[in-house]
Fold these 2 entries.
Entry 1:
Amino acid sequence: MRRHPSLVLTLLVSLVFVFVHVPEARAGGPIASGSTVAGNLTGPGYSETWTFSGTIGDHVVFTAMTPAGAVNTTITLKAPGGSIATSTSGHRLDFQLTGSGTWTIVVDDLTAGVPTSYEATLIDLSGTLTSGGDPDGGPIASNQILAGTTNGLSDLDAFTFTGAIGDRVALTLVPTSGASYAPIIYLYPPGGGSYVTATSGRLDYQLAASGTFVAVVQEQSLLHTGTYSV
Ligand SMILES: [Ca+2]
């Protein structure tokens, strides 16, 4: 029996769909906003470099996590031209860009000697918030309930809404599956200043500005995966 051409096409589409859901393994290189990459720290340098194009004033969040948090990493952000803008020995870097051009992120093994894989996610809060590998995020309307997934180590999902100064918003975040899974919201104002957050699963906040707000959902430790409603 001959296969129907549309069945073949469906199978091909399914294969592509499955493929893009695996974080792309690369030894550094470009990282797109809204996407997660899989990296490897190996000798002799135990260091990988990622690049992205950013505009002055953009607020970026970058996370990197090794399996089970076995190895402590440092994350260093370099401005176009190469000067160090900020760095952290934690797993989450949060920065408002001070220039336009190609920015560089270096992920290092702090102990410089333990080979490890890791996953890393970049979000430019005024840029692309989702990717083919992780469609969670985008606009959320008042009173709307959306389901999302913390797909892997380091995952960041960003939801946007427009508000006016003085509006009172309540954002709730409920884990719906996942062992030891504890999601948290970081709410960023228009223009990307300092965030507000709540660990209780409910963020009650009176808007101090008008415009587009971005609510970033992540797992508190970046170690656990699960599903949530927001
Ligand atoms: Ca996700």
Entry 2:
Amino acid sequence: MRHYTVRMLDFETCDQARLRRDAEYDGLFFTGVKTTGIYCRPVCPVKPALTRNVVYFPSAPAAERAGFRPCLRCRPETAPFCPAWKGSKSTVERALKLIDDGVLDNGTVDQLAERLGVGTRHLSRLFQRHIGASPLQAAKTFRVQRAKRLINESSLPMTEIAFRSGFKSVRRFNAVFLELYGRSPSKMRRPVKPAAIPRRKIETGWVSAHV
Ligand SMILES: [Zn+2]
């Protein structure tokens, strides 16, 4: 499918954008810091890590799949998904929209693929190629995003937040947060000053961003 062959930004481009905290690149790549196991947005206010200690990912789920935890300062897991391909009506984009709407919270990947009119294996391959993670990993990231939002912006009890965010059980909710942040959801609830980071949605892909 030639339509989808859009290359990822190269290391040098990412590295320069990160070192100057270029907001134009927010959502276009994510930085994993090998020495801390944390991943960040290009606009992170924390002192930048040395170039030899970083690795770049095309999406938040890809960084998480590689074992990195989201930074608590720049909150990379809430950055917009930036699909690394051309075309605004692609299968992956439609899939991400449906996943964000919660189709994988109750349904299966097979059902999602059927709804999109593609095979399950084909869908998984497209996900690997374009966001570097599976549909289920993307669903997990979206659930965590919803939960983090409710934890930070509401005073709902954790049980309520777990179900509203799409987790099947409170146990699963706690386990995912422990795995991702190394702490329970209730420990995440503390007054946090909103980061002085633009939250605009980025629609551009890898290529259009640096031509
Ligand atoms: Zn950060």
